[in-house]
Amino acid sequence: MEEILIKIFLALVLGGALGMERQYHDKPAGYATNCLICLGAMLFTILSEYMGEAGGDPGRISAQVVTGVGFIGAGSILRDGNKISGLTTAASVWVVAAIGMAIGYGQFLLATFTAGSILILQLGMRKTIRLVELLKHYDTIFLVCDPSWEVVKQISNKIEQQKVTVLQQEVTKQDNKFHVSIVATFTGREFQKLTKELLEMPQVYSLYK
Fold first, then answer.
1. Please, which residues have CB within 8 angstroms of residue 89's CB and are 6 or more apart in sequence?
2. Which domains does the chain possess?
3. Low-confidence ranges of the chain (pLDDT < 50)
């Protein structure tokens, strides 16, 4: 009984810690979700061991945990145009379930070190991204604007003023609007400044990358 209480406590602590990080950054799967996933995976693992002791196949429940948590993770993945968000949250949900299973099997150190590694990765990754944003990289900007070549010229001039190197530009017409795709090299800060200036143009309806 004491060991079961330790497993429940550790599942709530580790799942909660990873969930708090997700919730702090306003991600779909937060504190409560990660606690429940970790606790549920732990409980299913204990039940699978009991099933094995009773002569059943202990791998059946564990296999279903891995499959079932995939559906939960898929629910956090969102698509907005060409941008996909929630993949990191889905992956963290998957790993939280694995941590819960490790706790269920009594692998406390493995579960703790794994949870700690994830927290270090998640928190350190954001600082790394800030450094990467200072470096120039290739990317494609998509704009929807008035069907006017003068507007396209104004857009090009604003990009040149930001000293952004344009590698390729393509213009197509759909639904009586120009769809402009621009391949360029710029830093994250340059993109933010450029986005602000372009969206201030009344002829530009949308901008994304």
1. 22, 27, 28, 29, 73, 76, 77
2. 2-131 (no CATH), 137-208 (3.30.70.260)
3. none
